[in-house]
Amino acid sequence: MPASRRRRLLSASLLLALATGLIAAHLLHLDDRLGLYWREQRASESERQGGIWLPDYRLVLETELAGLAEDETSGLTWNPLTGTLFTVTGQNPQLVEFTPGGVILRRIRLEGFSDPEAVEALGDGRLAIVDERRRLLAVFHLEPGIEHLDLATLPSYDLGFAAAGNKGFEGLAWNPHTRRLLLAKERDPLGLFSLPFPGEDGAAGILEPVPGAHLLVRDLSSVTIDPRSGHTLLLSDESRLLVELDLEGKPRSFISLFGGLHGLVRGIAQAEGVAMDAAGNIYVVGEPNRFYVFSRRPQQH
Predict the structure, then answer these.
(1) What is the pLDDT of residues 225-279, one digit of tens each?
(2) Cβ contacts of 138 within 8 Å, gap of 6 or more
(3) What is the pTM of this model?
(4) Helices (H), the chain
(5) Among 141, 66, 78, 136, which Cα is nearest to 107's?
(6) How many CB atoms are closer than 10 A to CB 120?
(7) CA 118, CA 130: separation in Å to the nearest integer?
(8) CA–CA separation, 138 vs 255, rounded Å?
(9) At what angle do helices 30-41 and 3-27 cross, to 10 degrees?
C-alpha cells in the first residue's frame, strides 16, 4: 500500500475515532460533568451550605433488605410521620415498610398493580404509588394492620404517554414548598413533570413539563426533594449518578456511584430509588434488594 494512502487511511481513522469520542462524550454529558466539577471546586462556603452538596456525602451503611431478592425493589420514600422508609417491588407487587437500618417491618400486597416503580409519602399522611406500565398514579391512606391494597378501590390518575411502554414514569417526589408532585420520566423523552397535589378523590391538575431543568444524565430512575432547601435530587441508573438541582433546575453538585468513591466498595450496579430525611441523610435502594445510606461529612476546603 502506498505511503500516501496509508496516511489518508490513518487520518480518516483518527477523525472517526475523534468524532465517535465527541459523540459519546455528548451523549454521556461528560463535558457538562467536567464543567460542573470545575464549578464545585470553586464554590463558596455559602454555596456549599445552601443546599445538599453531594461531594461531602459518604456511605455509612450498606446492607440487604432481607427476603426481597426475588421481588426487585424499585422506588423509595421517607415518611416523616412514621420515621420509616417505604419501597415498592415490581416482580411481586408489594409495598414494603422498613427502618433506616434496613429492618423490614411489614409487607403489603399490591393487587391489580402491574409494575409499581415509585412510591412517595405525601404531605397529609397519604402515600402515592406510580404504576409505570399502567401509566397511573394511585393515592391512599395506609391504615394499621392492612395486609393488601386493591388498585380497583383506590383513587387514581392517568399520567398519559400511552406509548411509553417500559420507559414511563419511574420517579415521584412530593414538594412541600410548592405543594406539587414531581414526576420523573425515565427516557424517550427524558424529563421532569409537575402535577398539582391530588385531592381525596384522586383528582389532580394538569401534568406539566418542568421547564429549564438540565439533568446531566442518560435516564432517570428516581427523584426526591430535600425538605430543607427544596433542591431536587436525581438518581440515574445508567449514568450511575446522583445529581443535585437548585431551585432554578440548574445542576449544583453531583457524585458518581462507582466503587471506590464516597465509601462505596463495589458501587451501585442498578440504582432504583432515592429518598432524603429532614436531617439530610440520603437513602438509596438498588435491585434486587440492596440498601445504602449516605450521610454528609463536611470536608476541609
Answers:
(1) 999 999 999 999 999 999 999 998 889 999 999 999 999 999 998 999 999 999 9
(2) 113, 128, 129, 131, 151, 154, 155, 156, 157, 202
(3) 0.85
(4) 3-27, 30-41, 45-49
(5) 66
(6) 28
(7) 5
(8) 32
(9) 60
